[in-house]
Amino acid sequence: MAGLLQTSFILSYMVFAPLFGYLGDRYSRKLIMALGVALWSVTTLLGSFMNNFGWFVVFRALVGIGEASYSTIAPTIISDLFIKGVRSKMLAFFYFAIPVGSGLGYIVGSETAKALGSWQWALRVTPALGLVAVILLLVVLKDPERGASEGSGHLATTPWKEDLKDLGRNPSFILSSAGFTCVAFVAGALAWWGPKFIAMGIALQRDDGVQQNDVAYKFGLISMASGLLGVPAGSFLAQRLRHAFARIDPHICAGGLLLSAPMIFMALITAAYSDAVCYTFVFFGEFFLNLTWSIVADILLYVVLPTRRSTAEGVQLLVSHALGDAGSPYLIGVISDWLASVMKSSSVAVDVIATNSSKPLAAAVTSSVSQENALIEFRALQYALFTTCFVEILGGLFFLINALYIVKDRLKVERAVKTEVVFVHNSLQQSMRKLVTQLS
């Protein structure tokens, strides 16, 4: 049920992403984003006042609609303002906000809940920041022509059906989206279950207890630090090596996932023995995972035509979240619950002994059962989280295959844009000649 909260948010997010992609390729992107952030903020605030779990789930889903508008369209505006190396830097600056923002969410949320004595107040901080964002979007942001940075600002939009067909025939788009789906799966699972799992591991180490808010605070700091370092590091490596190695982008993404997998595995192993060692492995696991964020966005922008980029962003968000973090928190929870029930079924005899024994013996056995149950719950969640390591390896394979197609697909877009620019230039020249002839 806890995982369902995140799943409901991601489900609406992914379903509405293609719709905002369609609108973003055809209408005012600035206005769409402002309305989306406003919806995002209002529904977050209203959700904090819900006393019924069902209604709370509904408002979490509505928050996802607002976020879909922003996440789908914002990268395409960046692509129209900057080009090549500068665009990569700006995308890195934009995408490092995801892990850093998530980390700040843990920190601000846990501290606000602790200070005011209610977790609902953690959701009442966001709307004020959302209001600031809406004002900045409407007053400061300028919406450039689509393809303006590449000199193709006059490209005409094509029917949405044709856009989708073209994306379906684009190997680099398909494979990078598949790899990013694996990234989303792991990121969603770790963000949702990471603090709880570490808290369970620390509780097994000592008897003085542990506050999950404290674990969430530390987990947030680690997530923020890994994002601050990992996202720019991926972009920096790609920019420095791109001139010498044309296929470096998918190779870095593949390397990041394949290096992250053993780090996450070791974090899961060491949680019950040393929280400091576990936190260290979590940092490096998330650092290597974060190498991919801005690079995947850059790949999409240079293998897709400017007039189809919002649609491509929407489709990629739909696929990556549908098969990634929309289901991973819930799936991990289901696997963990099932494993726990299987493990506990072998301990039924102990419960029977405790029930039929004398009071002192029953108390001792009950205490033993309680400790055993805690260990079972920990092991069940640990085994469930091991699936993230296998998913990371699968994602690395997708990116390695992507490297076989990346150069051809990039050149195809560059030629199409160049041809269109030349066509527009020639058309303008012909129009000017006709005008001069008529005037003379």
From TrEMBL:
GO terms for molecular function: transmembrane transporter activity. Residues 1-414 form the Major facilitator superfamily (MFS) profile domain. It is found in: Membrane. Keywords: Membrane, Transmembrane, Transmembrane helix, Transport. The keyword Membrane applies. The chain crosses the membrane at residues 6-24, 31-49, 55-78, 90-109, 121-141, 173-195, 215-238, 250-273, 279-305, 317-336, 383-407. Its main location: membrane. It is a multi-pass membrane protein. SUPFAM superfamilies: MFS general substrate transporter. It comes from the Eukaryota. GO terms for cellular component: membrane. Belongs to the major facilitator superfamily. Spinster (TC 2.A.1.49) family. This is Major Facilitator Superfamily. It comes from Popillia japonica (Japanese beetle).
